[in-house]
Structures are given as C-alpha cells and as structure tokens.
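Record filed below.
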Amino acid sequence: MISGSSGGPNDGGTEFTAEGVAVVLREACEAAGLDATGAELLRLGSNAVYRLASLPIIVRIARDTAVLAEMERVVGVAQWLETVDFPATRVLAGVAQPVVVRGMVVTFWESVQETEEYATVGELADLLRRFHWLEEPETLRLPYFDPLAKLSASLDGLDAISDEDRAFLEERAAKLAKDYDRLDFVLPFGMIHGDANIGNVLRHRDGHAVFIDLDGLALAPREWDLILTAIYYDRYGWHTKAQYAEFVHRYGFDLMNWPGYETLADLRELMMVAWIGHQVGTSERFAAEFALRMRSLRTGEGRDSWGAF
C-alpha cells in the first residue's frame, strides 16, 4: 500500500514532490548509465515509482535514508529469489544498488509488464504454497514479524483522527493483544511475504504470475500470509466464494476452519483501519472511508461496503 506524501524536504534537503524526485531520478539514472528521458511517474506516495521509456525498467525512490538498510535487505531478497528461480520481481542486474541520491534511496527493477494486470487468486495460492516451502539463508537477516508492535506504532502516529476514535482503536488493540498471545498456530513458523494479497501478484508479460512488493518479507507463522485472502472473501466480499474455494484447494489449508481465525482476522483488520487513518488528512475519500470503517468496528455491520485500496 502506498501512503500519502507530505511533500516535505528529506534529510538531503530535496522536496519529495514530483519536481524533486524528477531531479533524483535523472541523477540516479545517469550514474547507472540509464536514460531517464520520458520516464513516467506511476506513483508518488511513501515512494516515488517511475517507469522508464527507454528500457523496461522500474525505478523506485524512497523519501529518506532511514530505509537504506531495509532496501539493502529487499535487494538481497530479490537476488536470492532469482537464484532459486522463484517467480518474483527482479532487481536490475549489473547495477550496484541501492544508491543514495540527494538523501533519497533509489533502486532499479525489471518491469513485469507495460500495464498492471493482476493474476488470479488461485495463482496467489500456488505462489504462497511454493514460497512457504523455501528455506531462506540466514544471510538475508529477515526480521521477526511482531504484529502487536507494528500496530502499536501505527496507532501512536495517528494524528489526524479524533481522540474518541483513537481511544476506541487503542482499547480494541489492547484486547486483541491478549487474545493474540493465546493463539495456537498450526502451520509451520517461517518466511512470509507479509502482504500476500491479489494486489501483489502481477501477470508477467510472458504469462506467468509473480510476487511484487518484497518489503514485508519476515519470519512469522504462515497463517499471516493466508489471512488477507480469507477476510477479503469472508468480511468484505472482494473475492467470491468460488475464488476462495480455489485458493483453499490450491494452497491446501482453509484458515477459516482454524479456531484462531477470528482473532487473526480482527487484528489484521485493525491494522488495515489504522492505515486508512493515516490517510485521513490527504483526501475526502480517505476520510469518508475511515468513518465507514470505524462505524463497522463499533456496530459489527457494513463491512461489505468497504472500499478496496
């Protein structure tokens, strides 16, 4: 998910705006021996994402050097996945990366395709099943996923919502933290994608499905990689019954039959609501969506009206 951009200056003094990142793009491409002429700005959020016109290459620019270590890990993960022939987005070979330009962190990726075409829920299941069989090398230094710490940090930074809403979310989080600590996970602990949903599985130009967005790779119970598809079907109606049945059949496990499903679903949902809460000040659309989701949390109704972001 892409968060809103404040447009403020980063540590290098360059504004994180369309004009500012354009300068960074040109300098980074020049250093890498690439032509930035005619590059298309696809997104400007927590990252700026460009598609080059000269070659099938995506350039990703992160707003400050605080993410340098994380981007080094992501590049390492992508390179390792290529060595084991796992279908995922590839970093551009022959270019030292990540690079820091004007206080921003730049990485170069092979373009999956010219237009965004998503794969199927069944193909997501196939990729996850294969992914969960992989044994990652210790050299990747993958972090342990702590959902409670992540949620707490997200709630702490919610400045644009009312005190009443924040108090409600914090109280709900405290209850879920106790419930989460009592969960008995049944799938093996190991490497997870971290944001495994249909929006992160694209159709490659040669036809096969590939994982994108490798930032969230971590070590955790594998149930975390199944929860989004389950609640997208069960709570929000974003997947059909047939699609979810196909997902279960091809992965080989139905998370909704696990006793801890509702707790995990509630916790993942709260993380989704908190993310929307961070966007409240950026547009009326986000403000309206946050209000809708808060009503659902309070009443237990209306989840089938949630918008997908």
User: Anything to note?
Assistant: The first strand starts at residue 40 and ends at 44. The longest helix spans residues 163-181.
